[in-house]
Write a structure and sequence with these properties.
about 0% strand, mainly alpha, about 80% helix, extended, about 130 residues
Amino acid sequence: LSFLSILQEKAAREYGKDHVESLFFTHVLGLPLFLFQTGDIARHAALFHTAPPFGSLCPSLPYTWILLIINGIGQLVCVFAVMRLMHRTSSLTVTMTVTVRKFASLCFSVWYDVLVLVIGSECDLHRQYH
C-alpha cells in the first residue's frame, strides 16, 4: 500500500490531483482481469440464489445478495475516502490511516466472531439441557 501511495503521490504532483479520475482508472484498469474468473463468478452467483430470503423486508432476494450489496457500498465509501485522503495528504498519512482502519476492522471481526461463538454455544447448551 505504501509503495502504491508513493507512486500515486508522484503522479498527482505531475498530472494534477483529481481523486475521481484516479478512482476511475484504478478500478477500470482492473476490470479485464475478471474475465479470467467468469466461470467462478457465475458459479458463486448461482450459489447466492440458493440462500434463504432476507426476510419480510425483501422476501424475493436472498440474504447473500443483500450482504454483497451492503459490502460493496461499504467498500465504495472506504475506497472513495482513501482516494480523497490520498490527494489531500502525504502517503505516510494515508498509510497510517489505512493501517488503523484495518486494525479496527480486525478488532471488530474478532469481537463479532467471539460473540457469535458464545451465543451459538449458549443456544446449543440451552437446547441440550431443556
